[in-house]
Amino acid sequence: MSTKRKLLITLLVIIIAGGFVAGSVLFNMSRTSVSDIPSDAIYVQSEAAHVEEIITKITARGKVELIEKTAVYPVTAARIKALHVKAGDLVEPGQILAEYDDESLKTYRNQLEDANLALDNANLALNNTKLALDTAKLSRDTAGLALETANLTLAAAALPPGRSELSQAESQIAQAEKTIVDVEAQIKQQDIAIAQINDTIASAQKKHEDLQTLFDSGIISKSELDASADALKNHLNQQETAESQRGTLLSALAAAEKNLATAREQYDFLRNRQEEPSSQNLISQRQVQADQARVQAEQAEVQVLQTEVQVQQAEVQVQQAQLRIRQLTKQIEDFKAQQFAEAGGTVLSLNVQAGDITAIGRQIMELGDTDNSNIKITANIPEYDIASVTIGQEVEITGNALGKSACLGTVSKLSPIAELKQVGNSTETVVMIEILPAEDASVLLRPGYTVETAIITDIAPQAVVVPIMAVVTEEGSNYVFVIKDKYNAEKRTIETGRYSGIYVEALGVAEGERVIVSPPENLTEESHVRTLQAADPSLE
Q1: Is residue 399 helix, strand or coil?
Q2: How far apart (Å, rounded) are the C-alpha atoms in residues 163 and 156?
Q3: pLDDT tens digit string along 335-351?
Q4: Kind and range of the H or E element at 378?
Q5: Which H or E element spans position 483?
Q6: Phi–psi pair at 403, nearest 5 degrees
Q7: What's phi and psi for 49, nearest 5 deg?
Q8: Given CA atoms 426, 427, 431, 435 in this order, what sign does their dihedral have?
């Protein structure tokens, strides 16, 4: 038989067989449609509810870290001369970590000497300011006395003198005389202070000249010479201030003497006045004098207030100088040329290098035990998921470093606070959790790895599920259409539970019941339906 004839026979067999199958299907559907299917039936797709295990997970990216780490802080604030370890080195207890430059100690001592000099200057400035305050108060008292005298004189110009006015005038004279004595005493004290300052200037001048000689010989540094020059300049400024204060005291003395002369003049005036009223011209003169005295008294009060502020500022300067001395003294006492490890471990990080100046309280390195039993995984869980996470839950751990295998762990800690973290281009409130990997997982993990974690928050071993596309939500309730009696649709309210891919747990549907997937909008509980699987004998 030729090949061409064989092909023709084969093709004929295929056509006949195909026609037989098509005819059978058409006959079956024709029989079904004629005998059973309602004429108004709506074609729908359906699927049977089935049982499966649903595992609910919360996923998050995590980082492998050490559980216990030791922060190393400098034993002194100084320049690092040399570091004896580097990141990754294994350190034994008592091993030397760093050496510090003893030039720092010399610097501290020089700074302490400067600080003591600054304290002396601050104390001298404070004393001078307090003396200025005493002077200002004396001027205020003098101005107040002058105002009282002027007011008394003004009142006396308009009224006949009485015994009380004469007594007041006598009191004014006594007060003015006392003020003169007080001012003269303060001038003497100021003269003594000026003499002391002059002696200090002479001593500072001699010290500066000696240091200039040492500097010219290369024995001392420029900073030490400059400090001496600054000290001499401060003393000269203090001399100028003291001389100015002495001038203020002399002015106060002149004012007090003038007040005394005015008081005596008023006393004489009151004794010699006749019974007739004073002239209007005299009253006007006395009014001008009273107004001038009032202005001077107000100005004197302002000067007192300003000087009190200066005293407070000078006291702060003294306190700062004292604090600086205490700090430098402690740095000198605490200085150590070498730093040793108090505990062993691997150098995890090194935050300084040779030549850096350390600061007390600033971490210089971190040590830790890199043993596999000393690792944990930290991950950030969004606030809307954290309610489902509890200590002890199982965690699946995967990552590039682990290959295709997955490790297990358990949630060991939940942070008591939430934090705002940057996630992509937005921020999110998260809670940090800690996960302890199982012993076999610890062997595969290393500090610094990035891993993916899946926290198993719930397991439903026998959940009845339906396609998500079968569930319709209406006015806050969920329902599905269940096919009953072959061609009828029952609208049944359900409660949805856990999700599993394209399926959802349906409480209210039994295993095996068929639900309509993506029900048409015109489908109602009175509608007749016909599934697209009508040729399936199970649906007949």
Answers
A1: coil
A2: 12
A3: 888 889 988 888 888 99
A4: strand 375-382
A5: strand 477-484
A6: 70, -140
A7: -65, 140
A8: positive
d(CA 392, CA 464): 28
CA distance 95 to 100: 15
Render pLDDT for 148-203 as a digit per residue (tens, 0 to 9): 877 877 776 665 555 566 777 788 888 888 888 888 888 898 899 899 889 889 98
SS3 5: helix
pTM score over 0.85: no
Quick one: tokens of 419? 């934090």
Residues 446, 441: Cα–Cα separation, whole Å: 10
Kindly report the length of the chain. Answer: 540
Q: Residue ranges of the alpha helices (H) in 377-503?
A: 439-442
> At CA 477, angle to CA 472 and CA 481, rounded to 5?
40
Kindly list the distances between the CA atom of residue 227 and the CA atoms of 221, 222, 314, 329, in Å, as whole numbers in the listed order. Answer: 10, 9, 21, 19
Contact by Cβ (8 Å): 378, 432: yes
CA atoms 446, 447, 452, 455: torsion sign: positive
C-alpha span between 303 and 309 (Å, rounded): 10
Strand partners, 482: 490, 515
Sign for the CA dihedral angle at 510, 514, 515, 518 comes to: positive
